[in-house]
Fold:
Amino acid sequence: SSLEMLPSNSEGKKKHENTTFQKFGVGKSGSAASPSSHVGEEKAGRSLAGSKYVKLNVGGTLHYTTVQTLSKEDSLLRSICDGSTEVTIDSEGWVVLDRCGRHFSLVLNFLRDGTVPLPENTRELEEVLKEAQYYRLQGLVQHCLTTLQKWRDVCRGCHIPMITSAKEEQRMLATCRKPVVKLQNNRGNNKYSYTSNSDDNLLKNIELFDKLGLRFNGRVLFIKDVLGEEICCWSFYGEGRKIAEVCCTSIVYATEKKQTKVEFPEARIFEETLNILIYENGRGSGLGGMALLESGGASSPGVGQSEEDGAGVGGGDRRVRRIHVRRHIMHDERGHGQQTVYKD
Structure:
């Protein structure tokens, strides 16, 4: 009959559901349909030959560049472009790379320009190095290694030992084969107030010490002493004995009170640092080195007073050049009742 030829309600509903699921590429149960029924799957091994532009999905970060840029260096990225390395390309044409995309823009900029500013953080720089090694970009690898080495050298130059006891100082001087420059800085020993320029000069001495430590890194050992009796005093050692000393403090006498004055004899300090290089690698043992030191031991005019004594080890002919700033005696020449002015 005509009623038997019409499909039942259940059969018609079933047919409608099958048509709907096939349209969207999934089965009735919600699982993906077979590969032949849709084009949304990821394909591996497709070559980028003949392409001009490349879309890259690196760990979820998207980048758009050219095949020419990726092929500038003999690297993993070039092998991806010429098809010698298989890659995964999704249905939208994105090349999927299973790497962290945080530094990939830096990798692309290096390929574009041949150089790139590197992160100033050591940890981030090491991360960039790992990415450069993975992509086999030898130019970027060398750039990272060179920068890391410079940072390590600077860190070694900034590492200055701090003396905590007299025994430690003696042991350090006896075992060190390099010339030694020591800055003794102890403001706790000051009994009087400072003159107007003393604070600035004290900071200048400390800054000069740090600059010399960086400049002569690896050649001279720089140490600090905050336990000694002097407020600001430089000492220079060669072969385990003191060669010279520059004391930067003095007492200024006025009519009513005493003041501590700190000098900054920059030229003399720099000269003694250069003189101490004679003892580098044991070269100061000869008579020529001693003669050169003796000839350079005269005090510069206006800097201070130079003294020599035989406190050195090995005989009276080895003397320590002691350079002290002049003691200034200032008299108040103002009339009675006028305010006293203390000058530096």
Summary: The mean pLDDT is 75. Residues 160-295+303-324 form a domain with the Glutaredoxin fold (CATH 3.40.30.10). The chain is about 35% helix and 20% strand.
